[in-house]
């Protein structure tokens, strides 16, 4: 069940990243959003919240560098 929740959280993070396109977010904005989504997904999945926040924050900050959230 936790894989389903993690996948749902990932899709939710993608949707949230799409909402920030109209406001021209900075790397910090995307990192904060990613950290929040990562921490929430880790908590719901029963995993380490700090690891989830770190991974989500890194993904949020780097998503524009890999052209995933433009």
Protein architecture, described:
There is one protein chain. With 70 residues, the protein is mostly helical. It has one domain. The protein is built from 3 helices and no strands. Helix 1 runs antiparallel to helix 2 (27-45).
What is the H-and-E element order? Answer: HHH
Count all strands and give the number: 0
Unreliable segments of 5+ consecutive residues: none
* Residues in β-strands, percent: under 5%
The number of helical runs is: 3
Number of domains: 1
Signal peptide: 1-17
Protein name: YMGG-like Gly-zipper domain-containing protein
Keywords: Signal
Task: Provide a brief overview of the structure.
By secondary structure, the chain is mostly helical. The chain is 73% helix and 0% strand.
What secondary-structure arrangement, pairings included, does this model have?
Elements: H1 2-19, H2 27-45, H3 49-62
List the defining traits of the structure above.
YMGG-like Gly-zipper domain-containing protein; signal; 70 residues; mainly alpha
